[in-house]
Write a structure and sequence with these properties.
The protein has 105 residues and is an all-alpha fold. The mean pLDDT is 86.
């Protein structure tokens, strides 16, 4: 059972990394920011490796934070009563947003 969980965790990590690397917003961000911050023609291979490692470390940290928040949210909505409260809150927010949009039009 533990090895099955470990394999599932590895697959999930790999899927998350591939999803992040394929994110066009990240490519556009780095394409816009890096030329402004660094002279790309003067970077050595080791400097490029450091920049890539920092980008991956920052992304991993953000993804871990998302994971922790999602785990806490999942623990919070385990009971039907709590799930009903979440559903009603979401419905109220959507209805309020719809009303605001309707009033502006």
């Amino acid at each position: 059972m533990a090895s099955r969980r470990r394999r599932a965790a590895k697959r999930g990590l790999l899927a998350g990394m591939l999803l992040t690397l394929g994110n066009p917003k990240a490519v556009v961000f780095f394409g816009a920011v890096l030329p402004q911050a660094f002279d790309l023609t003067a970077l050595s291979v080791s400097q490029i490796a450091v920049i890539v490692a920092l980008g991956l470390a920052i992304d991993l940290g953000v993804q871990v934070a998302y994971l922790m928040v999602a785990a806490r949210a999942r623990a919070f909505i385990r009971s039907p009563r709590q799930m009903r409260a979440v559903n009603r809150s979401a419905a109220g927010l959507m209805a309020g947003s719809a009303a605001l949009i309707a009033m502006r039009s």
